[in-house]
Design brief:
440 residues, alpha/beta, TIM Barrel, nine-stranded mixed sheet, two-stranded antiparallel sheet, 15 helices, 40% helix, 16% strand, globular, binds 5-hydroxymethyl-3,4-dihydroxypiperidine
Length: 440
């Protein structure tokens, strides 16, 4: 069987390894007094999600959390990157607090500490409370204040014990994927909505950072996703299209959060749709960061298209594909580690998500995942040797879970989940990583 050759022994002594999940994807959102979210509404609308699946039961982590934490400890991981659900903490998004929700996260964090795991909290991983979606959700500037209030309530309870915190997972997905491409809740395809979300997500990030600093919390960062944009052909038009794609995907949030600027080539298209006075918010969006997290999975081939801005179409090249149809391109991770460093200098970086979906069954070794992880760890290792201050690597995901619009079919886990019996079965990749992370 394939091994992970780039294990703990190859990395600097203080390098950390972890696994990640998110609340709606694993918890079982129908339990424990959580409020309705825009994902429940999106999934209940025919055509949005495969088989109209939602997160009502998911992995029933709310019941199985202790055994799930045992799996992380037994795998030899250092960090557990998890998220809290806004709608579990505040079912209406504002106002009343669900004590059972806060109690759950309190126990979960203590459970991590008891097992020697570092709790890496994300405040928002996409489950917007439906009553806030009714008010316009990310299109409404007030969301920055609502998010700041939620941040304060959650962090007053668990902020003293988490190891790190990031406000919003993958701002590009929250804004562009969900309001321009329409693939995720709320499923809009509207450039004005997208421009507003692209700005308000950054503003909410900034406000949440201010709240957490005022509470005295440390080790605060941002987690952005990156996709390697390659021109579809050598034509100058395709090169320019790939640049625009790169700007929207990879430079917009990084530029705003790190430098306090939006990239000019993206503003060219978005400026007419931005909320009035957006310039005055840039200082709030740019808050001091203690680290930056990169989520990386794949590359995309981008061609010029004769249609309105951003004048582009997306294509798949000829590298091997994962179950998602995503090309396997470790070179992109190497590229982005250097690229992000060109913005952040000495700031510690973490790969906060990396992994692949595979049509796994419990009795077949997931060799493809082992090779994927090993090749990306090798790319990370190369970047460190070249001077990138990369401090950790976190696999997506601990276990198979709800893959949003693609339902339960796409399996990203190191641990197989039978969604009928809820039985967890560690895959070959879990065992390979455990061997590679063992301290000797
Ligand atoms: O499952 C998602 C996760 O919620 C965010 N990052 C990408 C993963 C795989 O698509």
């Amino acid at each position: 069987m394939t091994d992970i050759t780039h294990g703990r022994a190859h990395f600097p002594q203080d390098f950390l390894f972890g696994v990640a999940t998110s609340a709606y994807q694993i918890e079982g959102h129908a339990q424990g007094g959580a409020g309705r979210t825009h994902w429940d509404d999106f999934a209940a609308t025919p055509g949005n999600v495969i088989r109209a699946e939602d997160g009502a039961r998911a992995c029933a982590h709310l019941e199985h959390w202790q055994a799930d934490l045992d799996l992380i400890r037994d795998g030899g991981f250092d960090i557990y990157r998890f998220s809290a659900s806004w709608a579990r903490v505040m079912p209406e998004g504002r106002g009343a607090v669900n004590d059972a929700g806060l109690d759950f996260y309190d126990r979960l964090v203590d459970g991590m500490l008891e097992r020697g795991l570092k709790p890496a909290l994300t405040l928002y991983h996409w489950e917007l409370p439906s009553p806030l979606a009714d008010l316009g959700g990310w299109r409404n500037r007030d969301i920055a204040g609502w998010f700041a209030d939620y941040t304060e309530i959650l962090c007053r309870r668990i902020g003293d014990r988490v190891w790190s915190t990031a406000p919003i997972n993958e701002p590009w997905c929250v804004a562009w994927l969900s309001h321009f491409l329409g693939h995720h809740a709320p499923g809009l395809r509207d450039i004005r909505a997208a421009a507003r979300a692209m700005h308000h997500v950054g503003l909410a990030h900034g406000r949440a950072m201010q709240v957490m600093r005022a509470l005295g919390m440390g080790n605060l960062g941002a987690v952005c996703n990156f996709e390697y944009a390659l021109p579809f052909s050598d034509s100058p038009d395709d090169h320019a299209a790939a640049q625009r794609y790169d700007g929207i995907y990879n430079r917009w949030f990084l530029g705003a959060m790190v430098k306090g600027d939006y990239p000019a080539d993206v503003l060219e298209g978005l400026a007419p749709h931005m909320p009035t006075g957006w310039q005055d918010d840039m200082a709030t969006i740019r808050q001091p960061l203690d680290w930056l997290g990169l989520n990386y999975y794949t590359c995309k081939r981008i061609a010029h298209a004769d249609q309105p801005w951003p004048h582009l179409s997306e294509h798949v090249g000829d590298l091997p594909l994962t179950q998602m149809g995503w090309e396997i391109c470790p070179e992109g991770l190497h590229h982005f580690l250097h690229f992000v460093q060109s913005y952040t200098g000495d700031l510690p970086l973490y790969v906060t998500e990396n992994g692949m979906a595979n049509p796994d069954s419990p009795d077949q070794p997931d060799e493809a995942r082992i090779a994927y992880l090993n090749d990306h760890l090798a790319a990370a290792h190369r970047a460190i040797a070249e001077g990138v201050p990369l401090k950790g690597y976190i696999v997506w995901s601990l276990m198979d879970n709800y893959e949003w619009a693609l339902g339960y079919e796409k399996r990203f886990g190191l641990v197989h989940v039978d969604f009928d019996s809820l039985k967890r079965s560690p895959k070959a990749s879990y065992h390979a990583l455990r061997a590679a992370l063992a301290r000797n």
